[in-house]
Design a protein that fits this description.
The chain is of the alpha+beta class and 115 residues long. It is built from four helices and two strands; from the N terminus they run H-H-H-E-E-H. It has one domain. A two-stranded antiparallel ribbon has the order 1-2. The longest helix is centred in the first third of the chain and has 19 residues. This is Phage head-tail connector protein.
């Protein structure tokens, strides 16, 4: 996976290096998830698009590099004395659901391991 391609897919300017550490972490994390799940040493070319999709989902949901989780979508609004509530944007179990969303693609490359 390439950092420059992930930046393009996320709409981040190529010259903006402020998110490079976070994006590099996401790339490494996604590659590790795929390798561990599929029991393989390298991410095959056939899974690159899936890996980029996983990286985009992981980056947008977990927002690595930020001290505090970002506020999510508005969950309720009250007009009298003005009150706005926000949903929590980060799903605590997102990594587990991330794998489930891509299992169909990953299973084609998964190897059987006897322990």
């Amino acid at each position: 996976m390439e950092l420059s391609r992930l930046k393009q897919l996320l709409g981040i300017d190529e010259g903006d290096t402020s998110k490079d550490v976070s994006l590099s972490f996401v790339i490494s994390d996604v590659e590790e998830i795929i390798k561990n799940y599929c029991h393989i040493e390298e991410v095959p070319d056939g899974l690159l698009n899936t890996a980029y999709r996983m990286a985009i989902d992981l980056y947008r949901n977990e927002k690595p590099g930020q001290e505090e989780a970002a506020t999510g979508a508005v969950s309720s609004i009250s007009e009298g004395d003005t009150s706005i509530s926000f949903k929590q944007s980060v799903d605590d179990n997102f990594k587990d659901t991330l794998l489930k969303n891509y299992k169909f693609s990953l299973n084609r490359y998964r190897r059987v391991v006897f322990r």
